[in-house]
Amino acid sequence: MVMYSTEHFYDGLQALEREDSPLDRRERLKAMEKPLLFWYAARARSLPWRDKPLPYRVWISEIMLQQTRVEAVKPYFERFMEAFPTIRALAEAEDDYLMKLWEGLGYYNRARNLKKAARILTDTYGGCLPASFEELIRLPGIGSYTAGAIASIAFNIPTPAVDGNVLRVISRVLGDREDIRKASVKGRMEMELKEIMPKDKASQYNQGLIEIGALVCIPGGEPKCGECPLYSVCLTGRNGWWKEIPYKSPQKKRRIEERTVFIIEYQDKVAIHKRPPSGLLAALYELPNVEGRPLAGEVPFVLGIKKGQVESVTELPASRHVFSHVEWHMTGYRVVLRPPEDKNARTVFEGKAEPGCDSFGENVGEGLLGWLFVTREELAGTYPLPNAFNPYTKLIG
């Protein structure tokens, strides 16, 4: 049974049964408005950024929600708002603290771009977000979807916000079989939606489309057409084409990297290392790791540690982590170190040696230089480690 039908809301629109309906694309899109707004008013979820849609809160939520589920974002959003209640506070954030708060969300460039944008907003806009799509889209980390979302949700400017959810909904409503990975397809849908959006309810309209895509016209499974307010105008729903629409061209296969991760322990401390300032996981801390699969007996050599410095090497379980363009297939070793005989060399383990210091290399092994030995409490509370290392950080203790 269809719970929401357009005939409940206005006259003159007949339920559409065939692909050759006389409604053209524009008319079909225009016919979504009333049932969409009615449904959203009745069914919108209560979310922390939605209940208080101030521009700054909308911006942070939209960045966090990229590639991340709503339920996962909620606690991060609350902590972030508490730590950085204003744009100015975000602009002044310490990098390591910002990354630690972001730890677990992944895609860390999002956090870096937030700070870059916050600095621009502080210096140029007095610590406020501009009420302009054209100005928003020039900020670091903000593309057409995010600019449209902020403009419409926070300022009620009639600007489309077309993400994956909206692309799926609109493709299905129109019975459009074009490849939604193509920028030209997204661009055309943005123009079509801009022409028919209600001028006074842009916020509810965009959020309604996004909400339908998230809750009803779902990805990766059969849509809940019986609960959809757009069913009567949806060519895909009426014709059962949901397995075919939307069409996505195959993605390029990810590159596979074999890596070995090391939990290197010395008394109550564990070794970490800061990654380079650019590239994958830039400037984040990590457990020492190398490319390839060395044997247990090769570990001291691979790590650049004197063999006599190693008390034990224990193999750890294999794990896997998927990034957007690369996939790590990991194995690991727990390496327990002995105290060095040279008392001065112990400063490396105690975290007192300066970065780049080479005065103790001949005593403990060159590999230890550049490593930072931290307590488990410091690792948990201070240093941001990417999710990729979670299977191994859980084994520290």
UniProtKB/TrEMBL annotation:
Signal peptide: none annotated. One of its GO terms (molecular function) is adenine/guanine mispair binding. SMART domains: ENDO3c (SM00478). Keywords: 4Fe-4S, DNA damage, DNA repair, Glycosidase, Hydrolase, Iron, Iron-sulfur, Metal-binding. It catalyses: Hydrolyzes free adenine bases from 7,8-dihydro-8-oxoguanine:adenine mismatched double-stranded DNA, leaving an apurinic site. Its EC number is 3.2.2.31. Adenine glycosylase active on G-A mispairs. MutY also corrects error-prone DNA synthesis past GO lesions which are due to the oxidatively damaged form of guanine: 7,8-dihydro-8-oxoguanine (8-oxo-dGTP). It comes from Clostridium porci. Its cofactor is [4Fe-4S] cluster. GO terms for biological process: base-excision repair; mismatch repair. NCBIfam families: mutY. Binds 1 [4Fe-4S] cluster. This is Adenine DNA glycosylase. Residues 64-215 form the HhH-GPD domain. Belongs to the Nth/MutY family.
